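Researcher: I need the complex structure. Ligand is S-adenosyl-L-homocysteine. Inputs:
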Amino acid sequence: MNFSDSEVVASILKKEGYELTDNSKEANLVLLNTCSIRDKAEQTVRNKLKNFNSLKKQNNKLKVGLLGCMAERLKEKLIEEEQVVDLVVGPDSYKDLPNLLNEVEHNQKAVNVILSKSETYGDISPVRIHNNGINAFVSITRGCDNMCTFCVVPFTRGRERSRSPESIIREIYELSEKGYREVTLLGQNVDSYLWYGGGPKKDFIKASNEQKKNSKRFSNLLDLIASNFPQIRIRFSTSNPQDMTIDVLETMAKYNNICNYIHLPIQSGSDRILKKMNRLHTRQEYLELIKKTREIIPNCGISHDIMTGFPSETEKDHQDTLTLMEEVKYDFGYMFAYSERPGTYAARNFRDDIKKEIKQRRLEEIINLQQKHSKERNQRFLNLTCPVLIDKSSKKSDGFWSGRTSENNVVVFPKENYSPGDIVQVTIEDFTSATLIGKAKKKSLAI
Ligand code: SAH
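Model: Output:
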């Protein structure tokens, strides 16, 4: 999401005459787009800021700005705590950057952290930064209305709102004209997408009958994109089990160009913990959704987010998470130790009472189990031939391309005469827990 937001910011600044540089010594303006989801993300930014003190000594024109969630969460306090920072701009205020930079030019510090109920940056064509010209992110919703008790996002990104289908289609059209082959639709909770003419999702009930009749949900949006761009692969993230509907799965099954992959965070396998997290579904409901997914899209790649050590998590709760993983057998996962975020319901009401060592040990157990499952799941590709979109050179070996299957597995294979952006039929000959290894046969008509 931050990657995508940075592209919006680059576009706004380009109009003001700014150019991008790879060399921080050459820059007159450095903007750090920040994340607050865990404390570690914030500490990383604070460490990075230390480098800019010496850069400022070398270039007295240099200004430093903090964007994104950390800006929104800490506001003016960031300017007091981090002397090197000149500018603090929250996720909904990027259009104000030209004015704020003007203030900064006059040696004032500038802050804008006002959250909006309607801003989607739908009218801005993002400047693609450090992009391979093959995959791009396209934002479809901003903010989040789910008040998960651990999560800082509703406080830093505000109310949920959706971007107009027209502006999404226009952006994808521009990408397709430039030769892009894959888009990932982004939102905190893509299944909750709802376009009824603009404004916060929670005001939908106040919409006119006409607006309600013409409204578009996520499955409608997917249908529209998939049918308009048959040569582009479509992915999306993140799906939320409480909002994901069967019509989304059916739309995925209907179109070849919608990838067979769903990222479906669970956070915990324990009903008690799910309730305490205010995740509005049970373990059983989640498992039923997985079952339905596999019925409708038999080969579907499925990944998760899981968190260990949420307040009061017992060994029994942790075991519930491990058994859920055994039941689902995910292809991949993103796993974290709980990090208390100031201001959230959990921080205000529950004690962060699981010792660091215990959180860490549980985390290692789920990571090890996931690795085992990833390897087991990868086995199903052995000797199969599947379409792979080449996106870059393999990091490990320059003679190999790296690409992805529709199910989101990384595949490496000898380069031969193929090029990035090609979709090729690759026969899988070997695998590890993280990678499929194969040999390309020919360019693929299927995508
Ligand atoms: N909107 C998505 C999650 C976005 S954040 C959803 O609701 O599923 C990505 C992941 O970060 C979350 O799924 C969660 O596993 C993790 N996360 C969020 N808050 C956290 C916290 N306070 N401590 C540790 N991990 C956290």
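Model: Summary of the prediction. The mean pLDDT is 96.
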